[in-house]
What does this fold into?
Amino acid sequence: MSERLERTSKNEKSKKAKTTKGKLNMKKLNITFATILLVLGCFAMGSAPSASATPTPVPVTITATFDFAGFPNVTGTFTTSGALTISGPATMHVDLNYNGTRAHCVVTLIAPLGNIIIDQECQFATSPPRGRWEIVSGTGAYANLNGNGSLTMPPPLVEAMTGFIYQ
It folds into this structure.
């Protein structure tokens, strides 16, 4: 089978030559594009968290007792068990709502290797009062600590927090 090559002038290449060159350029472009996609895919896979990176919840109990003589800034002590086994002094700032039925408290646990800051949301319509707590920050050994749970406030002036630390 023979192909007919067309020329429009003496110095022009044939249309078949132009088409072949165009196909080569397109192949180079496709290879370049595929390489870029492959590299981007590798970066995306490398930054994806693995299944083992999922934090494991470990039970914890935090018990704090406070002296309310300096209300709304009170002081006391705390102990923990379960995921954390520390104890030491504690402070709490209490911010009651206008009618005293709810409170937002910020508790600071002062431990030998750093501090743990806990936000509490409490309501006083039940007996004993109850609420929720969450670790919002920490310093030293507790800088990346995460945890939350429920709390009750049984008499006399005790904050009984139960929940989980995520490790």
